[in-house]
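[Backbone geometry]
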Amino acid sequence: MRKIIIADDSFFQRKTLQDITKELGYESDAVSSGEELLEKLNDSYDCIFLDLLMGGMSGIEVLTELQNRGNKIPVVVITADIQKARREESLELGATAFMNKVVSKDELISILNNIFK
């Protein structure tokens, strides 16, 4: 079973993503900050869902750190920030996909299918 880790400071978003991914047959863990994600992250995860706008370490800072670590795990950025520049920066830092909040189940299915094809 594929395993996903979700980093979002919103309990509602973490719960929503965990419910959808579970329904789709994925196992998931959730953390509420970028720092927690970096502490918990290991090779057992097949995908990372990362919010950009979190207290403490931002998603951009997490992406930068993941890039510095040579991360090979696909990262799906999920954010309410709709600026084109933020999207481009995320992709340049290694994000695999970019989704705007509120997350659509159909869009999530499409992104996961592309990642795991």
